[in-house]
Amino acid sequence: MAKQKKRYRIKKLAVFEAFLILLLIAGILWVLLFRDGGLLNKKEPEAEPVLADITADIPHETQVVTTPQPTTETTTEPKMYSEYHSDDMPESTLKTENFVTRNGYSFYTENGKVTSIAGIDISEFQGDIDWDMVKAAGIDFAMIRVGARTYGTGEIVMDSRFGENLEAADKAGIKTGVYFFSQAISEEEAIEEASAVIMAIAPYNITYPVVFDWELVEEDQARTDYVTPEELADYSLTFCRCIKEAGYTPMIYQNKGTVIYRLDIPKLKDYDFWLAEYDDKPTYRYKYEMWQYTGDGVVPGVKTPVDLNISFKDYGADSTTETTTESTDTAEETDTYGDSEYSDDYYNEYE
User: Fold this and answer.
1) Are 111 and 334 in contact (CB under 8 A)?
2) pLDDT at 338 over 60
3) Is the residue at 157 inside a domain?
4) Other CB atoms within 10 Å distance of the CB of residue 144
5) Are residues 30 and 179 in the same domain?
């Protein structure tokens, strides 16, 4: 009896297992044949979307445009940068091929002779200067800072060493001019600056120009940030007229970028120009009388890096013998440039 019950249980378990196996097989067949993607239920792959499909529902005026369109949009910001030029502006007649650089010094030559005059410009930041050594090094003129107007408060501050530098340079036989760092924002301030300079230099022997040096302040906000090119030209004119009336030779200093884009230069064509362009050869197209070509010059007698310049006009010469490299090519006339007689070391090395 016990054996019969045992055989019955085994038979019942075998039937149950067979049922499970059939159920599993049925599930596998359903997946393979009927489920999405199965052998009997395949679908065609969807096409990749195209730009026309993506923008089909977008109104026409806002559809994506794949080519740039012209715009007539205008700005309300003040016009600060614009190239100024004039057909009647006198252009420079200096020849690029006549500029020569040797041992860090640049000069201008004509007919194989140096016709430019070597100079430096300095301020109190150069400290103590041995002007006799500077003269012996071949420097014939110096442009000395008289003072500056601060770009924040607008206060006029005189250079602490301008007097001693003017006296010592003159004693060493170096001809001198001066410059004032302006941050004028009105013609009244330009007059104030010119008056301060005229009073300060009255006791000294000034033979080179008195210069209006107005510069952009790049590293900070300044009271001059929104001075327009037309206004800057007016301030320059006002300063120069005051200097001329006082009996000095006025001049305007600017770097090439500022004079082209931030100064209405045609207004100033009657005044001499001092160009700052740091390169082996200047590329400025209009007439200029002096060129500042580096701010890292090395000159015996000056302990710090110093600005180096050349002048194409001997402002210290008598009016009867004054000449410029732009108007002469003769050997006799080139002898009127400077006091060095081309005997200085760096001139000799060139020749």
Assistant:
1) yes
2) no
3) yes
4) 29
5) no
Rounded CA gap, 309 and 338, in Å? 13
Co-location of 245 and 322 in the same domain: yes
Same domain, yes or no: 105 and 50: no
What residues have CB less than 8 Å from 116, skipping those under 6 apart? 107, 108, 109, 310, 311, 312, 325, 337
Q: Which residues form the domain of 37? A: 8-57
Asked if residue 163 and residue 48 are part of one domain, the reply reads no
For 137-200, the DSSP string reads: TT--EEEEEEEEE-TTT--EEE-TTHHHHHHHHHHTT-EEEEEEEE---SHHHHHHHHHHHHHH
If one counts every other C-beta atom within 10 angstroms of the C-beta of residue 296, the result is: 11
> Is residue 147 one of the residues assigned to a domain?
yes
pLDDT digit string, tens, across residues 19-35: 778 777 877 777 676 66
The tokens 């082996």 sit on which residue?
280
pLDDT at residue 333 is higher than 70 = no
Distance CA 294, CA 296 (A): 6
Q: Is 121 exposed, middle or buried, given 0-12, 13-18 or 19+ CB atoms closer than 10 A?
A: buried
Q: 3 lies in a domain?
A: no
Secondary structure of residue 244 in the 3-state scheme = helix
Residues 155 and 267 in one domain: yes
Asked whether residue 62 is assigned to any structural domain, the reply reads: no
Q: What is the mean pLDDT of residues 210-231?
A: 92
Q: What does the pLDDT read at residue 63?
A: 36
